[in-house]
Sequence to fold (298 residues):
Amino acid sequence: MTAELTVSVLGTGIMGAAMARNLAQAGHTVRVWNRTRAKAEPLTADGARVTATPAEAVEGADAVLTMLYDGAAALDTMRQAAPALRPGTAWIQSTTAGLDATADLAAFAADHALRFYDAPVLGTRQPAEAGQLTVLAAGPLDGRDTVTPVFDAVGARTVWTGEDGAAASATRLKLVANSWVIAATNAAGEALALARALGVEPGGFFEVIAGGPLDMGYLHAKAALVLEDRLTPPQFAVGTAAKDARLIVEAGERHGLRLDVAAAGAARLARAAERGHADEDMAAAYFASFDPDHTPHP
Fold:
């Protein structure tokens, strides 16, 4: 039987709330904090305790899990938590932060004698709520007995990528995976937009590729969100995808790569966000194809 842990979840957006809920359902003591407290309050029904500050959330915790918007938000939150952090506490850093920010977060962990686990996840709202995420993790062997029950509660699979969280090997893998997800989503949206402009029924396109190597379950899932006007609540929001796309482009530039598709995808997502779709599913990048004064219903 898994020992009960006290886990602090900092950030209760789409992913963090689902992860906190699954941790509580697995029998762990869960404390949560969110910048907007009202977004965390529903978790009290699942047994989590909502706290007023990050420091209150992490006091006496066995593990701290951060799932915030970006690396800057994660670092700011952990600085607020710092007075109550115990040396040796496991820090599960699941925010998609990018390479430079992950290095900053690892440095903070070292300064405060925390066991740092670079642990982004693959998955969106539905697998998060079902506890079926894939956890990508890098971090020290000493301490894995603490973090493994956390990973088991929130995910169906954990892929260990290394023993040094500061090397960000898990974040590197996450950026590669997200580059494919974002490219596929943008390509699906453009195909739907072109079909509409040319008077082609989307069903005809799906029929042509059915059963072949170009057919993808992901294409059908994202297309359905657009065609059936089910963009809210988002599985993965446009605004967050735009941030991740920027991180991917920056990572490429840092290593001497020109990622033309990723750069175009980042610009496309940013345009969709600017036009009011930031809080809709990332499939809403579809609308970036159209003149904002003549945006059609799909």
Remarks:
- The mean pLDDT is 96.
- Strands lie at 6-10, 29-33, 49-50, 63-66, 90-93, 115-118, 121-122, 133-138, 155-162.
- Residues 172-294 form a domain with the N-(1-d-carboxylethyl)-l-norvaline Dehydrogenase; domain 2 fold (CATH 1.10.1040.10).
- The chain is about 50% helix and 15% strand.
